[in-house]
Amino acid sequence: MFAAARAELHAPIQEIALLANAVNLLVQTESEDGGFHAPSIWEFFPEVFLFEGTPFAINRVMLVRFVAVIALILVFWLGTRKMKVVPGRFQSLVEMGLDVVRVNIGEDLLGKKDAKRFLPILTTIFFMVLFMNLTGIIPFLNLAGTAVIGVPLVLAVISYVTFIYAGIKKSPGKFFKNSLFPAGVPWPVYIIVTPIEFISTFIIRPVTLTLRLLMNMIVGHLLLVLFFSATQFFLFTLSGWWSVLSAGSFAFGFAFTLFEILVAVLQAYVFTLLTAVYIQLAVAEEH
């Protein structure tokens, strides 16, 4: 119990420390001699270019999110509009993606009955996070839709509401009691156990879901911009023999781009997997 709470806190704390180090390295003031200007955290707060001053204001981050959602809808529409018993390549690819969520996450953790119930929300979370993560490495977009807290927070709240709903549906009137007062614990120990269970179950879970995804996408973006900005600086600003260094920074940028693809997929998988784990815990027999 205590180990689980520490584990959930440890991952986002590490990511916050990594972000702090990255920001400390990357945020630099402009030099008088036209020196290198590293990316800053303010890149995640671009200027509004449509509907400024209204609740519908659109900046670059919102545009990236719209593009990701449109691409997601288009992929599934093209992959499912002419379903065949013997699928073509594109239909097979879409079905493989769906099977990752249905089998590897849903059925393995929840069983077939509960997996079927919660499959729509698990599938939506997985592909929404995946597509918004991948915009971070697409040219001309170059920013993950999940790199600003709005989307990670909304998805974490949805996950939070879902597992609470699942627990209440499974054990009306007993879910909160069983969550806060685990069976088999001596009554005096509840003075310590109950606050820990409350914090770990009802506070830490949505916080860690939000921070884990957000910090990975922020740090990934800052590192990619750093490497490719350095490449441009060495090649076009300093020129001369300094341009040799541009090959190294470009190589690092390319390597981290491949790594970011892995991170994008992994973070979508982890977010969905943890949502399924929380649902499974909520519908367990002891609840």
Automatic annotation (TrEMBL):
GO terms for cellular component: plasma membrane; proton-transporting ATP synthase complex. The lineage of its organism: Bacteria, Bacillati, Actinomycetota, Actinomycetes, Micrococcales. Key component of the proton channel; it plays a direct role in the translocation of protons across the membrane. Pfam families: ATP-synt_A (PF00119). Its main location: membrane. It comes from the Bacteria. The chain crosses the membrane at residues 57-79, 118-141, 147-168, 180-203, 261-283. It is a multi-pass membrane protein. InterPro entries: ATP_synth_F0_asu (IPR000568), ATP_synth_F0_asu_bact/mt (IPR045083), F0_ATP_A_sf (IPR035908). The gene is atpB. This is ATP synthase subunit a. NCBIfam families: ATP_synt_6_or_A. GO terms for molecular function: proton-transporting ATP synthase activity, rotational mechanism. It is found in: Cell membrane; Membrane. SUPFAM superfamilies: F1F0 ATP synthase subunit A. Belongs to the ATPase A chain family. Keywords: ATP synthesis, Cell membrane, CF(0), Hydrogen ion transport, Ion transport, Membrane, Transmembrane, Transmembrane helix, Transport.
